[in-house]
Amino acid sequence: MSWSAQAKIQLWITSWTGAGDTTDNIIKNKIFPLLYADDLKLGVLYESSSRTQDFSDTSKVFKDIVYLAKNYFTHPNYLKIDDRPAIFISDCPTLASHGLLGQILNYTRQAAAQYYGDVYIVGDLANGVPTSADMDNLALVDAITCYDVAASLNATEYVSGRGVNQFAKDQMSWAKAAYSYGVDFIPAVTPGFNDMARSDDHGPISRKLTTDSSFGSLLRALLEKAFQLMDKNTGYLVLVNSFNRWDQDTQIEPVKVMNGNGYYTNQDQSSSGYQYTYGIEYDEYGTRYLDILQEVTS
């Protein structure tokens, strides 16, 4: 689950994998009944990798979007941008590399049109640094954002102020490219990153900007830069990746404080005592990351 936050809270419900699955039932039966408050909106992130069998089969896509249009887009608190229901399509660069991006986006627009109308598509194209090869894809979507913030930070352990500045510079390049195609831009941030227990393709990123910084300083620094890139056309959205991805240490969901405020550890249960954390410290943060969001968005 990812958060888009400014004055109001908007939730992108991720890992939606089709009608009748556990996530779909939870959304309709548990989350939807709560969405009649004006300050809570919900949108769907469509995981294209799982729904296309790792980009080998597009037969489910049209039916999936029809289902979303009939069961989700009509909800009064479904997230709308430019008066259109917003849907986030993930793995757009990989779809493009397989020659499937245009097809998937056409299916999305055609299916939505049959049961709702025009749809607002957000694509995760703003990763890394834009190249000339990326430009043709921009015109296919309504907005772009960076979903893989950790990889785009191009850092391991501590990002530092210089790293944050470089990321902001790269994102500004994406924003300018998007605007040249009449496409909107949604800046994105992350509190940190660590998926070493499940993958070793990227070293962990501390939630502290430097070794001497406070916990949460990375998120705070990224948010300050993101606010400079907010787009009026999207309602000044900022994507916070994510609310509860514990397996990647990008969660901002509150944690119980067991040992008292100020407790932290770099304990690592790997055989080397270093493999999973690189020695980075982690703390019992309680509600810190929600507090940071509340503070900086107010």
Total separate domains = 1
Q: What CATH architecture label applies?
A: Alpha-Beta Barrel
List unreliable stretches of 5+ residues: none
Sheet-strand content, in percent, reads: 15-25%
Shape descriptor reads globular
Count of alpha/pi helices: 10
- Report the biggest beta sheet as strand number plus sense, adding barrel if it closes: 10 strands, mixed
What is the CATH T-level topology? TIM Barrel
Number of strands: 12
Distance between the termini: 22 Å
Rounded average pLDDT: 89
- Full CATH superfamily name: Glycosidases
CATH class category:
Alpha Beta
Spell the H/E element sequence: EEHEHHEEHHEHEHHEEHEEEH
Class of secondary structure makeup: alpha/beta
Q: What is the CA-based Rg, rounded?
A: 19 Å
